[in-house]
Each structure stands twice: as structure tokens, then as C-alpha cells.
Specification:
Layout (H helix, E strand, L loop, with lengths): L12 H11 L6 H20 L9 E7 L8 H8 L2 E6 L14 H11 L7 H15 L4 E7 L3 H4 L2 H10 L4 E6 L9 H16 L1
Parallel strand pairs: 1-2, 1-3, 3-4
């Protein structure tokens, strides 16, 4: 996480979200340590070679919510055509307390409530954590993905937008079908992204 604070970003959320989802299957194993060490070496190499994925990096955004599971052109458009790095994602940092040996089942249950999207308390904890990430990673704005039907993600987007506005951070919410590309219209998404980036450039 510290290495990913570098400006320009050595990694984007396209890669970061894949890594964290893979690592979750190996937490607590020697393999997870090996994967984490390999990732650190890779990030250090990118920084040393200055082989940043987005050049020039014109804007830095925090990724909230979830991206589509198919391969939409959102990332390519932002990174290759508009010089935008999605520098970090809310699902990646460790934000839950350690397990308690005297109460293993209770502490595991509490971890479920903390979860990737912070279900205890739902919106206040999630918003505060995301704001801290925005400051730590020096972002210009927040991009939130709201898959249809994912109520734990999209139920509070209006509140999140108002919250970030109070702290001077523009917020864009994108609605889409998580798994069915037939319901995806890039022209609609592109129009929203363009309007958002124009606001950042003002």
C-alpha cells in the first residue's frame, strides 16, 4: 500500500483489484506472503524504471464500489486516452482488527461485518475510510461503481457524494450491470466520464 502512494501511480485499480481478490483466497498461508513479497518487488521495479502505466498522469482517482466483471473499455479509455490513474481501491487496505484468540468465532464474525465495504456501521465507517485513502493517495476525485442489485454498494451513493463534496472532492457514480455486457452502453458511460473530467480540469 505504501508503494502505491507513489506519484505517478505504479499500479492502477485494474491490477490492484485483481491482486486483492486473489490474495483473499490465500490469507494466512505461506503463499500469501510470497505473493505479497513478489508484488512489492514488482512495484519497486516499476518505480525504479519509471515504467508507470499511465503517462502522463493528468488526474488521480480513488476507486470505490466495484467495476464490471467483463472487460468494458472504461479502464482503457481513462488510462490511455484521458491520462487518468485509478490509483487505489477501497477494498485493498487492511482496516479490520486482528483476530482474538480467546474469542475466535466472535472475532471472525466481527471481521465479516467490517468486510470489504465496512458494514459496521455501514456508511459512516466506509465514508471516513475512503476519505482517508483519498488524502493518503492524493487523489483529485472519486469514481464509484454501482452494479445493479448490489444494494450494499449503491444504497448510499447520494450520501457519499454529499460527504465528499463537503471535503472538496468531486464524486462520480456509474451504474451498470455487473456481469452482462449486453446491458452495457459505453457511449453513456463515456459521456458521464467526460463531464466529470471536464469538472476536474476547471
Amino acid at each position: 500500500n505504501e508503494l502505491r502512494r507513489h506519484v505517478p501511480a505504479p499500479y492502477t485499480s485494474r491490477s490492484g483489484m485483481l491482486v486483492i481478490y486473489v490474495l483473499r483466497f490465500f490469507w494466512g498461508t505461506p503463499e500469501s506472503v510470497q505473493l505479497s513479497e513478489q508484488l512489492c518487488r514488482e512495484l519497486e521495479g516499476i518505480i525504479a524504471r519509471q515504467a508507470f502505466p499511465v503517462r502522463p498522469e493528468l488526474h488521480r482517482l480513488l476507486q470505490m464500489g466495484a467495476p464490471p466483471l467483463y472487460a468494458p473499455p472504461i479502464f482503457d479509455y481513462l488510462e490511455k486516452e484521458r491520462g487518468v490513474s485509478l490509483v487505489f481501491e477501497e477494498t485493498s487496505p487492511i482496516h479490520w482488527p486482528p483476530l482474538e484468540a480467546p474469542d475466535p468465532f466472535g472475532s471472525m464474525a466481527r471481521q465479516v461485518f467490517y468486510g470489504a465495504y465496512g458494514l459496521e456501521p455501514l456508511l459512516q465507517r466506509r465514508a471516513a475510510r475512503a476519505l482517508q485513502l483519498a488524502r493518503d493517495y492524493r487523489v483529485d476525485g472519486v469514481l464509484h461503481g454501482s452494479p445493479w442489485g448490489c444494494r450494499q454498494l449503491n444504497g448510499g451513493t447520494v450520501i457519499l457524494k454529499d460527504f465528499f463534496a463537503q471535503h472538496g472532492l468531486p464524486f462520480l457514480n456509474l451504474d451498470f450491470d455487473l456481469v452482462d455486457s449486453r446491458n452495457f452502453s459505453f457511449s453513456t458511460i463515456e459521456e458521464q466520464l467526460d463531464g466529470f473530467l471536464e469538472m476536474l480540469e476547471e
